[in-house]
# Entry
Amino acid sequence: MSDTFDIVIIGGGPGGYNCAIRAGQLGLKVACVESGSTLGGTCLNVGCIPSKALLHASEMFEAAGSHMAGLGVKVSGVELDLPQMMKSKDETVDGLTKGIAFLFKKNKVTHITGRGRIAGKGKVEVTDAKGKKSELITKHIVIATGSEVTPLPGVEIDEERIVSSTGALSLSKVPKSMVVIGAGVIGLELGSVWRRLGAKVKVVEYLPRIMPGADGELAKQATRILKKQGFEFHLGTKVTAVEKLKNTLKLSMEPAAGGEITTIETDVVLVAIGRRPVTEGLGLQEVGVKLDARGFIETDHWKTAADNIWAIGDCTAGPMLAHKAEEEAVACAESIAGKAGHVNYDVIPGVVYTSPEMAWVGKTEEELKEAGIAYKKGAFPFAANSRGRANHQTDGFIKVLADATTDEILGVHMLGANVSEMIGEATLAMEFRAASEDIARTCHAHPTLSEALRQAAMGVEGWTMQM
# Structure
């Protein structure tokens, strides 16, 4: 017996569940098929949310143990209760997954637990945990299967001593030492958690810099600050092997360009070299869905090459970000409903939740130079920001890049406390194609960290004025 729907979505992560909710709001009959026991996908269960819970808790632990005394708050007997920290993280995740389930009920979305695959035109086969199969009939299929950890050839992840981001979120004790392979978002964030809790953290990165793709000036300053915090970086270096010994791990590495092999020993290795799309076992080729050379589903405005089959989120090209998936989810649902779905891919912000945070939107200086675009730059350091000085949060800066002729904002790059909350203003400005002068002449409350953005915008025309 088959159930019939307007849309069946395969995957219940940020792309899938937002698409389902929006489609439900638009009056469509929707089913969301999710193989995990809870909704929310990687982001909510073993990614964005639990990592931010641990980042916040570990930052508070470090502040209580070493930073608060400088503000005149003496704290003695600070102890780490790792089981309670993990429990708090799990409670946060549990509450949010239940919240999605509530929204499904509110918007009449059918939640089906099982592994979905496309069985033909307008057909989705679902296999539950016991192997029982059922079939759903639908007008449209949306693939929102997300991404998974990219493995490192020759290195077997056991999620105990050699861990992915999943295992790094649930270690039972603080390791004395940790080697992070990969100096991207995941590696730096989770490395920060365990460094604050007491681990000696070394980061090995194949490229000659951290945060590939971020603005070079931002990455350079971030590297200096993270080194000061205790990170040890081995840049331009590749890992050739990880050997499991009885009480330790022996990691072999060599220069990326080739050269002498060196070894280091550590308690835990975190493999964080990136993520890859989940597209295997979905029956894509049989129905004419095309993949690119890297395994991403090819789309045109979220439509695949197969009629009435759509794809959104990490399984498609572009930044692997939950908020990018959410934007595509809404646009895809609205397009299916006959509305004008839209995503502006030029203004999708990126954030790294280290301390200080990194955030950006738009073009980097390197990208503008490569494209031959003439631009002007304004920058302002948090060391000259009143609130930053008062809070002892003086690391970092904000930089605004604007078109040399029109003054339209082309990119904004931030390094500092709470910049994850400030990048939204820059994103909104760019969405409305604002000029740097628009931000420079917009009144900001004083004293706030956000004044640094205004001052950076003023700097584009050379009239920065605040201390």
